[in-house]
Amino acid sequence: MNFIHKSFAELNIYEWHDIVALRQLVFIVEQNCCYLDLDGKDKLAWHLMGYDKNELVAYTRLLPKGVSYEDYTSIGRVLTHPSVRKKGVGIALLEKSIEQVEQLFGKGAIKIGAQQYLTAFYQKFGFEVVGEMYLEDDIPHVPMVRL
């Protein structure tokens, strides 16, 4: 697995195409969820891309403090291609995401809006539930923070 991260301005059109296509595959088609993926935050984010044999198979969006949460940096749009699930790619992706957030924005608390069924996965990385379940696009989520 080869990871690279780029600001929005550094992405080329092929990388951006692959990111959007993978996000649509997972969040819109696979999860059967009609929502506006392009929410304006991408231009302010760093994009962490995981490649296997030159194919984008893992992705997260790394957000500075104040973009998603006023007092927290954040990791969002966490996904892996269906073909690489259950192979440790998600673990490697989240480890690298935390490392990159700390490198880019400094050490500090990270807040995420996690799909509720993934709570135990995020807890393995030090994230703790800090609020009540809420629905986002009809999918149960929970706020989580890693100190």
Q: If you compute it from the alpha carbons, what radius of gyration comes out, rounded to the nearest whole angstrom? A: 14 Å
Quaternary status of these chains? single chain
Top-tier CATH class: Alpha Beta
**Whole-Å distance between the termini?**
27 Å
CATH superfamily: Gcn5-related N-acetyltransferase (GNAT)
Number of helical elements: 3
CATH architecture: 3-Layer(aba) Sandwich
The overall number of domains is 1
Strand residue content: 25-35%
Dominant shape: globular
In helices, the fraction of residues equals 25-40%
Describe what this molecule looks like in 3D.
The protein is of the alpha+beta class and 147 residues long. It has one domain (2-107): 3-Layer(aba) Sandwich (Aminopeptidase). The chain is 27% helix and 34% strand. The chain contains 3 helices and 8 strands, in the order E-H-E-E-E-H-E-H-E-E-E. Strands 1, 2, 3, 4, 5, 6, 7 and 8 form an 8-stranded mixed β-sheet that branches. Strand 4, helix 2 (89-105) and strand 5 form a beta-alpha-beta unit. The longest helix is centred in the N-terminal third of the chain and has 18 residues, at 13-30. The model has no long low-confidence stretch (mean pLDDT 97).
Précis, in short:
The chain is built from three helices and eight strands.
